[in-house]
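Q&A log
Question type: sequence-to-structure
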Amino acid sequence: FLFVYAGVFIVGTPIVVVYTYTRQKLGLYWREWMTSKFLDNYLQNRSYYQINSEGKIDNPDQRMAEDIKSFTRQSLFFLLTILNSVIDVISFTGILWSISVPLSIFLIFYAVLGTLVAVFFGRKLITLNFNQLRREADFRYGLVHIRDNAESIAFYQGEEQESLQLKQRFAQVFNNFNLLIGWQRNVDYFTTGYRYAVIILPSLIMAPIYFAGEIKYGDITQAGFAFSQVLGAFSLVVSQIDNLTAFAAGINRLAKFRDTLE
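Response status: OK
Response body:
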């Protein structure tokens, strides 16, 4: 057993390390390419001047610095997560179907229902995340404004006015985030119950055929494990709803920025 463990450790460690390193490298180079493209468009034809004077979009600096970084990192994360989910579906669907067809059908219904509910909550969370990104950027811009204009603010004794503006901007940050965590609480009520129900549902559905002698006790354990793996794959939207809504909000900001530059 120790030799087997040592072999797995020796082989598995570099695989995990290289996997993480490669993912981060891909994200870094992708971010470099996207940043270069956005910067070129931003500085061509005086787009930066038109954006600033017309006020079509807010905080282009944050969109290039933070939103591109989040987009590239999260895109790779979701791509690999989807790939793992597909592998789980391929690996365990046949096992589950061979043990219990009713359980397989219930799984599809349960996953679809959970996804629809998650999408309902997600639409509101996308809006709140979008607004949060904007308000955080506005507050950060106010702090940078003081740093860049410290001499003139001190000369004209504008501390009180700057303080008032910053507090107003932070109040917007606070109020929107308060709404955001309230909606996330509602989502957590649903997702937590959704996950906990999986523990008992397979046994409840399979109990009648077990007592009828159609399956063995070991089949229940095997079906329960396969059920949890396949359901986890099908329920990607439910399990990642918070990350997906933040991701969607960032995509919306980048898309509007791109459309403005074009």
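Response note: The chain has a mean pLDDT of 85.
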